Backbone:
């Protein structure tokens, strides 16, 4: 049961004097769907960004699939990782951003084929076939020739999910994937993520403010506050019977609106 | 080339017609200086921009100082420096080349800022998405950042192209026979400054308008589908 694919060990992250994460211990098992909830500024995005190698750590070790993410070298003599090490580690990870971040100068198809061709060395026909399958999966096969600005936010985010999946990651990170969307477009993106969660053995780590959605798709929900996990457990427990006062306060506040 | 036997000073019109060929030769020199100067500026500007953006302050600070110096001292002084001071150290360059280098140096500082602004205007999320897709640093830059920076850079570059062309007459002080220099020599010999100077102004106007139009066409031809340019 416990087969950790992600492990934060006493991790700290500071930006100058700002302490964002402090003494964070956090584990995700292979294939597990974990949601992180918590107040604004509590460090949720930072956790995902560290995993995606967009931010380094100030202290502690992050393990991904048994290898230190931000360090290399022998145990006991770990030194900061270089680009080559990070490049190798990134093959296991993919990320979906709040603001989609599709490449505006590329067609939808190119957005999805670019990295498989450039990084994985797929032939163009193979990459195209893979992209079309993924577009089919997110219900956008008919949009392949368009450009991102011609699509709605919901469609763009579905493309972004397809783009991340095209790299065949083992771990997929979602940072508030529906927060930038008009309310009527939230459902279509959640539907795609829900399908992924149900049908794939992908490890998923999701940050969201949509509590009902978190409850539906997660095996485990973690409440983070002030840079560390304060409470975690299966969604039924955490949402219906939170033990910590801070969790109760937070849930009351977000469920009120 | 400036003998003047063929000039017909009967009246302004005949003078204008007879000096047009030699003014056009001057214009040719002006255009060559513009193109060479701008080419130097484009390459050197990119180097300067890269150095200024270097993570190490040991690199970025000197680059910034050089860039600031080039922008904040007059072109004429830089030109004199290259033309009169460098030979004292044994480096003698032809006047035309010296002039083009002086123009290129000063404008490299301007263009380095254009590059920097164009690159910084590409949203951070674009690079982050490229990292998440595991593109190498070189490909992040060449395939994601540069294509989105170019449409932002080209209009500003066009302005500097026009502006460098208008600075070429400064080279006349180091004997480069560009268009204005030719015109004043004609004036000295015929005691008619009105006609040659008016013609230089007119030719400059035409060149400036053409250059501006060229940049506009280039700008329109650039692929920039969906790139938010504000
Ligand atoms: N590059 C940075 N420089 C300085 N401070 C930063 C930087 N990135 C994040 N922070 C700070 O770190 C803290 C945590 O940021 P983070 O984005 O992880 O929060 P979050 O939990 O995702 O919040 P939200 O719900 O608003 O997205 C915030 O106070 C933020 O201002
Ligand atoms: Mg966040």
Residues:
């Amino acid at each position: 049961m416990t087969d950790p694919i992600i492990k934060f060990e006493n991790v700290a992250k500071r930006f100058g004097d700002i302490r964002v994460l402090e003494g964070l211990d956090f584990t995700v098992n292979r294939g597990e769907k974990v949601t992180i909830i918590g107040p604004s500024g509590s460090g949720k995005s930072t956790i995902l960004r560290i995993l995606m190698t967009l931010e380094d750590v100030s202290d502690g070790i992050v393990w991904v699939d048994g290898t230190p993410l931000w360090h290399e070298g022998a145990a006991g003599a770990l030194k900061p990782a270089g680009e080559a090490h990070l490049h190798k580690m990134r093959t296991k990870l993919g990320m979906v951003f709040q603001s989609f971040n599709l490449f505006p100068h590329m067609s939808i198809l190119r957005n999805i084929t670019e990295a498989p061709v450039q990084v994985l060395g797929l032939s163009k026909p193979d990459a195209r076939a893979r992209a079309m399958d993924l577009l089919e999966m997110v219900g956008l096969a008919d949009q392949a020739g368009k450009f991102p600005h011609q699509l709605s936010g919901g469609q763009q985010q579905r493309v972004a999910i397809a783009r991340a999946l095209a790299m065949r990651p083992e771990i997929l990170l979602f940072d508030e994937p529906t927060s930038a969307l008009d309310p009527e477009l939230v459902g279509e993106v959640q539907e795609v993520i829900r399908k992924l969660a149900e049908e794939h053995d992908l490890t998923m780590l999701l940050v969201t403010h949509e509590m009902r959605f978190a409850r539906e798709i997660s095996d485990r929900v973690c409440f983070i506050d002030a840079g560390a996990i304060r409470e975690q457990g299966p969604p039924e427990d955490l949402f219906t019977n939170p033990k910590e006062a801070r969790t109760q306060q937070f849930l009351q506040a977000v469920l009120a609106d | 080339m400036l003998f003047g036997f063929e000039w017909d000073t009967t009246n302004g019109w005949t003078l204008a017609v007879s000096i047009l060929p030699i003014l056009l030769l001057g214009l040719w020199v002006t255009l060559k200086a513009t193109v060479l100067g701008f080419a130097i500026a484009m390459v050197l500007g990119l180097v300067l921009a890269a150095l200024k953006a270097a993570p190490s302050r040991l690199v970025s600070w000197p680059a910034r100082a050089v860039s600031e110096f080039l922008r904040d001292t007059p072109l004429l002084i830089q030109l004199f420096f290259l033309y009169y001071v460098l030979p004292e150290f044994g480096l003698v360059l032809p006047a035309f080349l010296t002039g083009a280098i002086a123009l290129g140096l000063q404008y490299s500082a301007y263009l380095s800022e254009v590059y920097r602004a164009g690159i910084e205007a590409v949203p951070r999320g674009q690079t982050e998405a490229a990292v998440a897709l595991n593109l190498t640093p070189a490909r992040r830059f060449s395939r994601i950042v540069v294509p989105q920076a170019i449409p932002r850079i080209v209009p500003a570059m066009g302005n500097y192209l026009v502006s460098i062309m208008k600075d070429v007459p400064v080279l006349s002080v180091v004997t480069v026979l560009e268009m204005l220099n030719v015109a004043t020599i004609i004036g000295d010999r015929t005691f008619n400054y009105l006609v040659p100077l008016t013609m230089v102004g007119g030719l400059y106007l035409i060149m400036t308008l053409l250059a501006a139009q060229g940049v506009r066409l280039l700008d329109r031809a650039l692929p920039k589908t969906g790139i938010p340019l504000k």
Chain A has a mean pLDDT of 94. Residues 183-199 of chain A form the longest helix (17 residues). DSSP finds nine helices and twelve strands in chain A.
